[in-house]
Amino acid sequence: MSKVLKIIITTMILIPILYMVFWSFTDILPWPKLIPDGVNLDVWKQLINSKDYIRTIGVSIVVSMWAAAICILIALPTAYAITCFDFCWKPVIRGIIYLPFFIPSISLSLGLHSAFLTAGITDSIMGVVLSHIVPCLPYTIMILEGSFEQMGRSFSEQGRNLGANSIQLLTMVYLPNMRQALYLSASMSFIVSFSQYLLAFLVGGGIIKTLPVMLFQIMQNGNRTEISAYSLGFIILGAICTYLIRKYLGERYIMKYML
User: Fold this and answer.
1) Of residues 131, 132, 150, the one with CA closest to residue 83
2) pTM of the model
3) Does residue 241 sit in helix, strand or coil?
4) Which end of the chain has a smaller Cβ tally under 10 Å, C or N?
């Protein structure tokens, strides 16, 4: 990628964020002014001191981490089986796995809400976590499946020649070579879960409040300063949590305990 294209893409990403930063520190920013005349920290003080906001952060992180962990546990054997074994139902299973990509989010959310109502797990952390697994799982399987395919079947053949069974191949041959794929899939699952609004709102019923649910409630007030501050807080928290998953959770726990 050329330097000019990198600069253009970076600029397109940073300009809206920079404008949100300006709006979060002022009540009025009339056109054509791009930089506010004064600084108002009231909204940021309110955000930092809000117990409801802190509680919502905790709920969002817990839900997203559980969703990411469960997705990894399901996706690993699934991607391994799809990549390393031949069976007649493979195209059907692969199609079912990727269905959430093609089903409209509103239809998926209403269907899960109806099913969870019947099961009696709505308005609970468990219900929200299980609902978030559905949109997260296809991304996780896709990333891990690509990693298995990249390594090819030569790893499996060499391991079997040395007497390894399927579990030993997965844990002692493939996983040590899939560190980056595990980090990426865990981060992707966390981000997708962290940004879910409709599923969290419907399945949580307003009782289990995540950051996207809180952000949409704040947007209804129409206060640009408040919306900008809470949106920046959402972006910053998502970036920090993703970095920590990759830096600490991935290196210290995923490889240590899964092996």
Assistant:
1) 150
2) 0.77
3) helix
4) N
The token pair at 91 is 């195209």
165 alpha-carbon distance from chain centroid: 33
Q: What is the Cα–Cα distance from 42 to 222, expressed in whole angstroms?
A: 17
Q: Counting runs of H as helices and runs of E as strands, what totals does the chain give?
A: 14, 0
* pLDDT for res 45: 78
Angstrom distance (rounded) from CA 152 to CA 146: 10
Please report, for residues 75, 109, 114, 183, 252, the alpha-carbon distance to residue 248 in angstroms, rounded to integers and kept in the order given: 21, 33, 38, 10, 6
Q: Could you read off the pLDDT of 2-26 as tens digits, one per residue? A: 778 888 888 888 888 887 777 777 7
User: How high does pLDDT run on average in the chain?
Assistant: 79
The two structure tokens encoding residue 122: 């709505």
CA dihedral for 208, 130, 218, 11, sign (positive or negative): positive
Give the separation between CA 92 and CA 81, rounded to whole angstroms. Answer: 14
Neighbours of 73 (CB within 10 A): 12
Structure-token match 């969290």, residue found:
200
How far apart, in whole angstroms, are the C-alpha atoms of residue 194 and residue 243? 14
Given a cut of 70, whether residue 49 has pLDDT beyond it is yes
Instruction: Answer yes or no: are the C-beta atoms of 117 and 162 closer than 8 Å.
Output: no
Burial label for 34, CB within 10 Å (0-12, 13-18, 19+), is: exposed
- 98, amino acid identity: Y
